[in-house]
Specification:
380 residues, alpha/beta, 13 helices
Amino acid sequence: MSAVDAAPAPIGVKPIDDSTAAIQLTGNWSHDAAIKPAEQVLAELGATNPSRVLLQAHELAGWDSRLPAYLLKIIDYCQARQIEVDASGLPEGIQALLKLARAVPERTGARRATQKKSMLADIGKTALNGLKDVRGLIAFIGETVLAFMSLIRGKARFRAVDLFLYIQDAGPAALAIVTLISLLVGLILAFVGAVQLAMFGAQIYIADLVGLGTVREMGALMTAVIMSGRTGAAYAAQLGTMNVNSEIDALKTMGISPMEFLVLPRMLALILMLPLLCLYADLMGILGGALVTVSAFDVSLIQYYNETQKAVDLTDFSIGIFKSLVFALLIATAGCMRGMQCGRSASAVGDAATAAVVNSIVYIVVADSLITLLCNRLGI
């Protein structure tokens, strides 16, 4: 940077006579220059109390849009106090910009006044948005049911290759993250149970805790949470982008149902794959618990296996599989619904993906609670 570019931009008020004052602008007025705040200059101008102000800028080294904006503040101040302003001492470029800026004055009342909303209005808006979401959910469920009925009758129109691609994405492509999370959850369950069971010399029952906790609850729940953030958000983003690009409108124009062509194969893929991922997560969770129990406590691998086999039966596996089916339907519904309801902008696609994940997790937790309570009441 040269010495001229680094020089500050001095500005000062110089009285000329009893009724006239000059504001002299010199130096560099680019974006990296140090400039005195306009309030200080206006305070100095108010102290002199002139009836005429001369704007002089004969020694400017450089300037950008900051200088016209700075001068507009001074001119507005002078006009509000009926002080005459002479801008003939400014460069022609600055004079043209100031004339252009003040060619059309701001219309009175054009600016929107900020009004603070009452708490009752916020509650009402939240309630209306909730009702809108409920109506949208009911309508989407109805369209989904019609699409499945068309599938049962063999009249659903979608490409088989798309279904296989979605199965690949929702199944084998998710094995790595499911493996990692399930192993860690099994490790955590084993450590948490071991802290208390070791006090009574009952380390063998760690297998019961890990087996039942993983098979009945954590296997399906953690797999569903993973898929909601991985696959549910992807569905929302994919369909939202199609909505932005008017691809969904093009399908409707050609007489192809978007619910059958886009939503149905995604839902089928997730419904088919999530129970299998749940079984795999159960295995990984039990293996994670075995790693802790066998390595840190006086329990052999055969003892851990036998205890797990006694504690976990087919009913427990069935409950976990049933939960995974319900979770798959909820995740696919939330992701596809938010994608189909997406707006026409890039930010709307991000909002749809975020809403899909949030809704999926809420649906999963509520459904898991209800199913668990139902199984408890039924004694299963």
